[in-house]
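Technical note accompanying the year-one report. For the benefit of new consortium partners, we illustrate the data format agreed upon in the data management plan: each record pairs a sequence with a structure-token string. No post-processing was applied to the example shown here.
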Amino acid sequence: MSEIKEPQNMRTFFTIWVGQLISILGSGLTSFALGVWIFQLTGKATPFAITVLFGSLPAVLLGPVAGSVADRFNRKKVMLLADTGNALITLAGYFLFLSGQLEIWNIYVIALVGSVFSAFQEPAFSASVVMIVPKKDLTRANGLSQMSGALGNLVPPLMAGLLFGIIGLEGIFLIDFITYFAALGTLLISRIPQPERIEPQEKVSQWHEAMAGWRYLRLNGGLFGLVFYFAQVNFMINFAAVLTSPMVLATFSPAILGYVQTAGGVGMLIGSVLLSVWGGPKKKILSIMIFITISSLGLALAGLRPNAFMISAGYFVMLFVIPLANGTSQAIFQVKVPLDLQGRVFAMRSMISRSMMPIAFLTAGPLADLVFTPMLSEGGALANTFIAQIIGIGPGRGIGLIFVIAGLGTILITWLAYLNPKIRHIETSIPDVVKDPEPVEEKSSISNMLPAAD
């Protein structure tokens, strides 16, 4: 089992993080601007759903292969190639738009290919963190990573709305392309140690090696159960969250929708900053369950009443604790999984945990339109029940019921998972592969003769 032998600090991680953050903000500008362009061109919601689907499938389908690449090859070079590929895809979009040839199907291809590159970049980066960050700072580093996502959700919509009217889509494409140089530059100047690779005694197929992440999780039932628990949480939360826009716009203006999204983004940012400063909880599994429970209560609160303040408050609470749960979970995997397997395990973990999200995206809309909305309309099946008295009837209330069911269902799933002893005892039943640093001994001290406290 490989261990880290080189001195570590947060400097290298922070350098890379700054470059990745700048790139994320640039990509967020393009995503927002393309959404506006698609709506102006089609006036329909379906292209959005298809774009999201193409953007999420590669992480699910390519997980084992991407993880194997991250473990077999130099992780720094993998990240450089992935960022370069995404930069070239952005440049292609710029030239297509400039020549007047950009069409909806081009956006689907751009989303798909860009997501393929990201599918290789993510496990390479995740597996590199433990090589450049001390064990005591892993949760803090994960908090910074969560902060990148929060800023990526919060800042680009505010900037892109202004920039789109001034420089247009072509200008935003160029800004996005330029920001990739920040990611590439910080990677080039950073040194990322590689774990010692343990070669198999017998020659094995590429597929067998790619599936090593799956075999490791199956042999460690607690981690396997935790991954599948997060898959269920992702399904429940995304099944409701994907319907946020129609629920809000059924009753309120687009400006109110913006306030709701901003409240969620601010909550996620504050949660990320808190995790970075705090460093995370000691009892990680119990804390994850508490965090997800609080998030689920926020989800239910957002759907409870057609009240803009209540919806915004629910979104703030829901997204405030998501970085705390994700960063704490990531820290568990970083210290438990062997270093030479982390790329494959992280990719498999990502694949499994996201595997049910496309189902949520595809089924939520039809169920809302055909089942839940009619039930809480005037004269609907639930119009004269206590449910209607609590949630209300009319536009958006069927979706509100979905939010409440998803929130309460996630709480039930959470505490059923905690009853599983393999999940509950992960922190003690699976040994750490990342060790705490040895204390520095004094040259002359009576206390040196005493045994160190655990």
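Partners are asked to follow this layout when depositing records. The chain has two domains: 8-192, 218-431.
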